[in-house]
Each structure stands twice: as structure tokens, then as C-alpha cells.
Design brief:
The chain has helices spanning 20-28, 33-36, 54-61, 101-107, 127-130, 151-165, 200-221, 252-255; strands at 9-15, 45-48, 68-69, 79-81, 94-96, 110-115, 137-139, 171-178, 227-232, 238-241, 244-246, 256-264. By secondary structure, it is an alpha/beta fold.
């Protein structure tokens, strides 16, 4: 990352609440072809989330603590604030001298842009303004949020507009928090009803919906130069697992998340 920062555009996508097991199953079954074609060897890496709900996890991610490989470390990090004694800061780590990654990238000449999804990014109150307030630009509207059946399409359209309006020489760090997998998600599965509610199956259908449109986002992010992309979940969510439902709790379905990073070559086209 110490060589990538400054020469590449950067894309970070958090697939909010996406469970590792669902993501892995869909990749193996060929149900998310547009994502799978970019995953190393076509599979997700199994990692542990830095938090059990959106706010905590993104505070950690924006400090450089991405989801951790699900095996004994230490694991060298891509990004890290400079501090003495860090065992996960390596020779290739991009080290910043600011309180968070966003201001560190801004100091390195990047335009930092947030396209929010869930309520912690809606800027409708002080708490919903903390995370987007860390960026130079942030966008949220109801159509991007959890109640919208077309949330991801709307987010991608805004991302395309952001990229198109940037000067060619301006480096970009684009962050997209994808709300589609978060409850309510029943409307992504044909035949599902509001009364029946959300389930592991509707969660999976929401990921298929995202996959159908993510090619446009990849194309926009790589339209100006080579782009380094990180796609991961911030935490999972339980659907009755061992009696648990939801997140902000200490269950395997919440703590275990999918992760991948890869390069998008210039001129990547949407399928």
C-alpha cells in the first residue's frame, strides 16, 4: 500500500451486515458472478470483523483496522496510524500521521468521498453525522437507505456522477456503504412478503441484487486509472442462529465476515 497510495485510485465497499457463510455459498454456487470474477481464486477470504455493528466497525476501519484474517497473527495491515510498538505495521503499510485514514489520505492528495447507506451515514442528527463527517464529501438520501428496494442502483448512479465530475489528475478515495443486505431485505426475494419478514434466504437475494449492479461501480472506479479495491462486510447478522437474531451481539454469524481486495484495471467495463 505504501506504493499504491499516490498512484492509484482507491475504492472501499462495505457490504453492511453481510454474513460470511452466505457470501461464500453464493460465490461457490455461481450466484454472484460479477463479484466472483474479481475475488482471488473466485472465493472470499474468511475474516473477523473489528466490531459487531456498523458504527463501531467503521470507526475501526477508518482508523486502519480492516477485518482481520481468521487465523493467528500478527497480520500486516494495509493502513496504519503511526504509533510506537505496532506489531501489524509492516514495510508495505501505508502509514499516516493523522487521527484517521481519511485525513491521512487527504494529506496524501486524495479527494475522500462517502456514499452512505445505513442510518449511521444519513447526517440526519449528530450521531448520523460522525462517520460521514470524516470525509471531504459525503452523500446520503432516502433512496440510498435500508428501506429502498433500489438502494444500490441509486448509490452507483451517484458514484458515477462523483467520478465524472472530478478533474482527471485528482486521486480519489471512494467509500460506499451498501445498505441492501441490512434488514429489511425481504423485498429482494421474489414471492417474499413483509409479513413473513427477513430471512437468511432474503439476505442472500439481496446480495444477488447487489451483484447485478456492482459492475457499474467497478467500471466507474477504474475509469480514470488503475484502482485498488477492498470489498468486505463490516459485520454479519443472525437469523435465528442458536436463538439469536440481529447483530451487536457476540455470535459467530456476526463476527465472521467475507473480505477481498484486488486491482481493477483501467477501462474495466460493466457486464
Amino acid at each position: 500500500m505504501s506504493e499504491i497510495v499516490g498512484s492509484h485510485d482507491l475504492l472501499l465497499i462495505t457490504l453492511d451486515t453481510l454474513r460470511y457463510d452466505v457470501a461464500a455459498e453464493l460465490a461457490a454456487a455461481g450466484r454472484i458472478p460479477h463479484l466472483a470474477r474479481h475475488l482471488p481464486d473466485g472465493v472470499w477470504e474468511k475474516r473477523h470483523a473489528p466490531g459487531s455493528f456498523t458504527y463501531a466497525s467503521h470507526q475501526a476501519i477508518f482508523a486502519g483496522f480492516l477485518p482481520t484474517p481468521a487465523c493467528q497473527g500478527p497480520h500486516p495491515r494495509l493502513f496504519a496510524a503511526r504509533f510506537a510498538g505496532s506489531e501489524s505495521t509492516a514495510s508495505g503499510t501505508f502509514v499516516f500521521d493523522t487521527p484517521d485514514l481519511l485525513s491521512g489520505l487527504a494529506d496524501a492528495g486524495y479527494r475522500t468521498v462517502c456514499i452512505g447507506g445505513v442510518g449511521f451515514f444519513n447526517r440526519q442528527g449528530p450521531l448520523g453525522s460522525v462517520l460521514p463527517g470524516m470525509f471531504q464529501e459525503s452523500y446520503w438520501e432516502p433512496e440510498f437507505g435500508v428501506a429502498s428496494p433500489t438502494s444500490f442502483e441509486a448509490q452507483v448512479t451517484r458514484a458515477e456522477q462523483v467520478v465524472a465530475e472530478l478533474p482527471a489528475e485528482q486521486r480519489l478515495f471512494l467509500f460506499v456503504n451498501v445498505a441492501a443486505m441490512h434488514q429489511p431485505n425481504w423485498f429482494h426475494q421474489p414471492g417474499a412478503t413483509r409479513e413473513a419478514g427477513d430471512s437468511r434466504a432474503t439476505h442472500a437475494a439481496a446480495l444477488e441484487y447487489v451483484d447485478a449492479h456492482i459492475g457499474r461501480l467497478f467500471a466507474a472506479a477504474s475509469s480514470r486509472r488503475r484502482c485498488f479495491a477492498i470489498v468486505c462486510s463490516d459485520h454479519g447478522t443472525a437469523y435465528g442462529d442458536d436463538g439469536y437474531t440481529g447483530h451487536r451481539l457476540g455470535h459467530e454469524s456476526v463476527w465472521t465476515v467475507p473480505y477481498a481486495h484486488f486491482f481493477l484495471e483501467p477501462g474495466t467495463t460493466a457486464p
